[in-house]
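Input (structure):
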């Protein structure tokens, strides 16, 4: 199985990417926090670094190796990537610090490209609350279907694709909820209540399926611990 105890060659690149993003953010946050301490105080820094830490724990720690053997470990990864890291990253108000943290020449090139009509229209579409909600829901259910779920456990490459989909769509979903500075929303703030409740309902439905199913939906876990599943680590009546 790809995500057994022996896997982990991807840990260094993941941690390297996390550290690089953190360094860019800190480099931009330092000067901006002095200019606008009310908008970019220490709490923003702590939130953003906390979000990066959640990503590192999810995909760059022993938890990733355990995910191939234990359902609970894999579900914990998904929770960190979809429910913990994204809101923390947005609470860090990352747009301005990340741009400011880039080298001047690169910063100007990125800003100029983002200002073009097609990239700007694409960002506006991606930032739309309906697009974020639907994308989040589709990623959630598609990747928890038995064929793709087990494919992600058997293949490192597909496991990375799964995690990237979860993180990307969760960032889209959480953006209108957090509405990080300097973002603005055309939606009244009260609409975020049904937006969030309807999304959370999916977690409840999946949890009910995992708990109440009368068959083993992910046979890969039964094989990963031997011919007889360990009742302490597998949910023998669940799909996922």
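Output (sequence):
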């Amino acid at each position: 199985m790809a995500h057994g105890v022996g896997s982990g060659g991807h840990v260094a690149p993941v941690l390297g990417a996390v550290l690089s993003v953190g360094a860019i953010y800190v480099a931009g946050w330092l000067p901006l926090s002095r200019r606008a301490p009310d908008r970019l105080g220490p709490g923003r820094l702590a939130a953003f670094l906390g979000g990066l830490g959640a990503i590192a724990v999810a995909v760059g720690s022993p938890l990733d190796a355990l995910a191939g053997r234990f359902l609970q470990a894999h579900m914990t990864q998904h929770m960190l990537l979809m429910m913990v890291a994204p809101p923390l990253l947005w609470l860090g108000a990352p747009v301005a610090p990340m741009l400011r943290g880039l080298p001047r020449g690169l910063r100007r090139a990125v800003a100029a490209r983002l200002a073009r009509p097609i990239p700007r229209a694409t960002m506006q579409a991606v930032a739309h609350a309906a697009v974020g909600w639907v994308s989040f829901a589709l990623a959630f259910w598609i990747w928890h279907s038995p064929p793709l779920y087990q494919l992600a456990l058997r293949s490192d490459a597909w496991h990375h694709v799964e995690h990237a989909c979860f993180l990307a769509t969760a960032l889209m979903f959480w953006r209108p909820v957090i509405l990080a500075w300097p973002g603005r929303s055309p939606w009244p703030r009260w609409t975020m209540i049904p937006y969030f409740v309807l999304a959370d309902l999916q977690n409840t439905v999946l949890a009910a399926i995992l708990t109440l199913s009368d068959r083993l939906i992910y046979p890969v876990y039964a094989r990963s611990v031997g011919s007889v599943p360990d009742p302490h680590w597998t949910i023998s009546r669940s799909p996922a």
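Notes: Residues 11-224 form one domain. The chain is about 70% helix and 0% strand.
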